[in-house]
Design goal:
The structure holds 2 protein chains of 2 kinds.
Chain A lengths: L2 H17 L2 H26 L4 E6 L6 H11 L4 E6 L2 H9 L5 E4 L3 E4 L5 H23 L3 H8 L16 H35 L2 H6 L4 H33 L7 H32 L7 H24 L4 H6 L6 H10 L5 H30 L8 H6 L4
Parallel strand pairs in A: 1-2, 1-3
Antiparallel strand pairs in A: 3-4
Helix pairs in contact in A: 1-9, 2-9, 3-5, 7-9, 7-10, 7-11, 7-13, 9-10, 10-11, 10-13, 10-14, 11-13, 13-14
Chain B lengths: L1 E10 L2 E11 L4 E5 L6 H8 L7 E6 L2 E2 L2 H4 L2 E4 L11 H11 L4 H14 L15 H13 L5 E4 L8 H16 L3 E5 L3 H7 L2 E6 L2 E7 H7 L2 E8 L2 E2 L7 E4 L5 E6 L4 H11 L2 E7 L3 H10 L1
Classes of the chains: A mainly alpha, B alpha/beta.
Chain lengths: ~400, ~290
């Protein structure tokens, strides 16, 4: 039995006891189902644009219904028209959102709270068109002439740069991927800290340490819980891939975007989790009871939270200076670099450098962490100062 | 043979060990005695490499203890602890495997020990569902499962009922008969006297007395004088230390060269002598003498 076999035994115990927990299994299954459900829901909304719902009260301009329908069709939106006998009834429906806007006496448009420029334009055009119909009738034009004159002129629209239909899905996927990374690192990092405190609190650590080295306990815990996190991540990733394959948006290869994001998330999870897990284990070892854990969990949170918030800025603009520089700061790299990569803002050398920095940080943290862990693990009662734990492992 | 040599350990200004020194031989049971805070637990932790001594060393068979050697030791710490959510068998097997046993051997040994300790019917229960006494048995199983050559038990009798004490004593005796070297600490001196052949007494981090129990008693210059006159404990004028034992009985400790004739004469003139005994000291007498120096 060499040290590595012992460490794997410790890792296996961490994995098995947690994987058997009903809470863990149920939570994983529920999250996976929710993710799969996103597929049909998105498809429903993506292929079925919201109709414009207009209420008409009082004097109704001639031919307003045909006018509204024709103009709404230009923006590829269906229109729903409701007629009201009284302004009070119409306003009541407007307030509870049954209609989006009211056309009152053919002279004013009423919104509940926020006005919509699209609606204003569609309704105004339609009212003006109705007014023209009345004038044309007065002029004695025949229906064919009136139709030709009143047909809206459709302008062609183009952009200098061809729009990338993949841009939006890619941003959404990058956002979702970073969120999953952040939540998984945080959750399983805390598992590591809690597991460490548990062993201290129920004193089993002394029996364990009479057989193995503290550094083996540390590595075994990080490996075992990491394997569990990876399994959960892969289950959720599979659910995510099922979801994106259900979604059908024309001309966008969601499946391949999804696969690329999953690969990036798994890769960066391995680095990010390892980095944070050793930090969590180290701070976890300094307290003796679960009640004291919250206080020391602040330290890893201080590192990881800004990284996550900056990654949200990066969704809008991955070229921001803080995003660029932040992606080389190892605690933030696991969230910022995959975001930059997904949005095409990172050069290969930048990715390579950031990976090297994270790996170097992990090595440093394992060294510092094992020493603090060793010094703090058998000290019970209160919270051990990091410095004292470091010093007490001199020999 | 385990040899603990001149261990010194200081935590800041607090001296934990100041010359801890004793040996434990295969096939013998050593009772490790001392007041609270004397350094018993620290010494045991040094044996298992859980605490590094500032100086001194611990050897097994005259060799420095390596990880491989240490895996053949068994330890039951004073702070009892197990994984509360793990099943009993699973847990003992885990510790057996950590001690280097193959998976099949670990299961076989676990089943054997669970049966010997009378908890085989709880093998599938989670540890947290067990009574205190049964948890202690699981703890013992974890310390014994890999057939250790050296067994170190910190206060193993604490919290056991008389039946549990008898069972544990028998188990330890059986192990010693098979050649295991055993150290256990205890506060219950009469228990130590019954179970162990050797003792080491530690006080303020220093082992003040160690050796075979019989030799220590015989070598002691103290004698136990038990005189009852007219139904009451009687103390000679020539002095001595009056001791009240756990059962409330009193006796007097005197030097071995005390003038017995004069004392008996004095007792006789004081009244009817119901009892007059002059014996080697008990372990508790030896202990008191050692830690009061």
């Amino acid at each position: 039995m060499n040290r590595w076999n012992q460490t794997m035994l410790l890792a296996k115990r961490e994995f098995v006891t947690r994987a058997k927990s009903k809470v863990f299994l149920v939570a994983t299954a529920v999250i996976a189902l929710v993710i799969v459900a996103i597929g049909p829901i998105v498809t429903l909304f993506a292929n079925d644009p919201e109709p414009i719902r207009i209420g008409i009260v009082g004097i109704e301009p001639v031919g307003i219904e045909e006018g509204l329908t024709a103009r709404a069709a230009l923006s590829e939106q269906p229109i729903e028209i409701t007629r009201y006998d009284s302004l009070a009834a119409a306003e009541a429906d407007l307030e509870d959102g049954t209609v989006d806007a009211l056309l009152v006496d053919g002279t004013s448009i009423v919104f509940n709270e926020e006005e919509s420029l699209v609606v204003v334009q569609v309704v105004t055009d339609s009212v003006n068109s109705s007014a023209r119909i009345v004038q044309m009738e007065d002029l004695g034009l025949n229906p064919e002439e009136m139709r030709q004159l009143n047909e809206p002129e459709q302008l062609t629209v183009r952009t200098l740069v061809a729009p990338d239909p993949e841009d939006r899905p890619r941003r959404v996927a990058a956002f979702a991927g970073t969120l999953v990374l952040f939540v998984t690192i945080l959750t399983f990092g805390q598992f590591v800290a809690m597991g460490t405190v548990e062993e201290k609190q129920n004193r089993v650590v002394e029996i364990v340490l009479s057989r193995v080295k503290p550094s083996q306990v540390l590595v075994g815990k990080v490996l075992g819980i990491g394997a569990l996190a990876l399994v959960q991540l892969l289950v959720l990733a599979a659910a995510g891939l099922v979801a994106v394959n259900i979604i059908d948006i024309e001309g966008v290869p969601l499946g391949s975007i999804g696969a690329a994001i999953v690969a990036a998330v798994v890769f960066w999870f391995l680095l990010g989790y390892t980095l944070y897990a050793f930090l969590y284990a180290t701070v976890g070892a300094t307290v003796s009871r679960q009640e004291d854990l919250q206080g020391v969990l602040l330290l890893p949170a201080i590192f990881i939270l800004p990284g996550f918030f900056i990654s949200q800025l990066a969704v809008a603009d991955p070229d921001l200076a803080i995003v660029r520089f932040g992606s080389f700061f190892p605690p933030w790299t696991p969230m910022l670099m995959p975001m930059r990569t997904a949005l095409g803002s990172a050069q290969p050398w930048e990715v390579a450098l950031s990976i090297a920095l994270v790996v170097a940080s992990i090595v440093l943290l394992i060294w510092v962490g094992s020493r603090v862990y060793t010094g703090a693990l058998l000290r019970t009662g209160g919270t051990v100062k990091l410095r004292d734990a470091w010093k007490s492992t001199g020999a | 043979m385990l040899a603990v040599r001149e261990l010194h350990k200081q935590y800041g200004d607090v001296v934990a060990l100041d010359g801890a020194d004793f040996v434990v031989s295969p096939g013998r049971i050593l009772g490790f005695l001392g007041p609270n805070g004397a350094g018993k637990t620290t010494t045991m932790r040094v044996i298992f490499g859980l605490v590094y001594a500032d100086s001194g060393d611990v050897t097994w068979a005259e060799q420095t203890i390596t990880d491989a050697v240490r895996r053949r030791f068994g330890y039951m710490p004073e702070e009892r602890g197990l994984y509360p959510k793990m099943e009993v068998r699973e847990q003992v097997v885990h510790f057996a495997r950590l001690s280097g046993m193959g998976s099949q051997d670990a299961v076989t040994a676990t089943n054997r020990w669970l049966a010997l300790l009378g908890i085989d019917d709880r093998a599938e229960s989670k540890v947290e569902e067990l009574s205190h006494g049964n948890q202690q048995r699981v703890q013992l199983a974890a310390a014994l499962v890999h057939d250790p050559v050296l067994l170190v038990l910190d206060e193993p009798f604490a919290g056991l009922d008389p039946l549990g004490v008898d069972a544990l004593s028998t188990t330890l005796q059986d192990l010693a008969n098979k050649g295991t070297a055993i150290v256990f600490s205890s506060h219950q001196l009469d228990l130590v006297e019954d179970v162990s052949q050797d003792v080491a007494i530690i006080n303020r981090g220093r082992v003040v007395l160690s050796g075979a129990l019989d030799d220590l008693k015989a070598d002691s210059t103290t004698r136990r004088l038990d005189i009852v006159v007219n139904g009451d404990h009687w103390v000679p004028d020539s002095g001595g230390r009056v001791v009240t034992d756990d059962l409330g009985r009193r006796h007097t400790l005197v030097e071995s060269d005390a003038p017995l004739g004069d004392i008996l004469a004095a007792a006789s003139s004081a009244g009817q002598v119901d009892r007059f005994s002059f014996e080697p000291p008990s372990l508790s007498d030896v202990f008191r003498e050692a830690v009061s120096k």
